């Protein structure tokens, strides 16, 4: 009989067919319509590792307690938390799993991708509005429900900030709303191209590897000819988007077949009318001037 890869905190093996995901500090098992996250423990784990993983899960519980202070419509792009138990987080089960696994089997249309990106930006807005930095954004951390709507999960590396904090000024050991936006740009790049993009906040060549550092633009791939490339490039430029709300607005006015609309949010037909309006007006003014001059000349004669 094969040995289970995971055990619970009491040492009881967790059947592999019940495990729906795991990470560096937690394992998630399905129980009916719930996904239960508990501290990661292998049969060979030492007690120090288990204690550290338990601390990480307790930290994530504090994040969900923050979210639970708000009505559900203000956190509807975050995977719902249905309960917090001792050393466990009960989340609503998301039928279509994580985005990375989904993309390995499916190639969504641009329309679906754009819908996802808007939901992702909204999720980031909602998180920052609750004075929380995500810290770790990746395709594996976005989950899909039965209708393929996307929601953010996994706040094990999040920063919980005091209520009322000026989020645009936050620098939590290098983490900020700008690093979150940059990471989201890497997620969008992966969805569009099918290639993983390493947005490395802790490069090996830095003397201080304990502090997050926004990557140099030269370390990231070109987006020059990429659909949505201008949006992603701004995500990878510190201050390119002032905050997640600004990113949401840019995505809101993006056209699936073309580039996103400029700041005045005009439609393409409006742009055409604007381009033709000036020549028409000038022509009318010129014609009127000729009529006046002709009448004046006749009176002189």
From TrEMBL:
GO molecular function, one term: ATP binding
Keywords: ATP-binding, Kinase, Membrane, Nucleotide-binding, Transferase, Transmembrane, Transmembrane helix
Domain of life, source organism: Eukaryota
SUPFAM superfamilies given in the database record: Protein kinase-like (PK-like)
Signal peptide: none
Domain Protein kinase: 14-281
One Pfam family this sequence matches: PK_Tyr_Ser-Thr
Transmembrane segments: 280-297
Name this protein carries in UniProt: Protein kinase domain-containing protein
Organism: Talaromyces islandicus
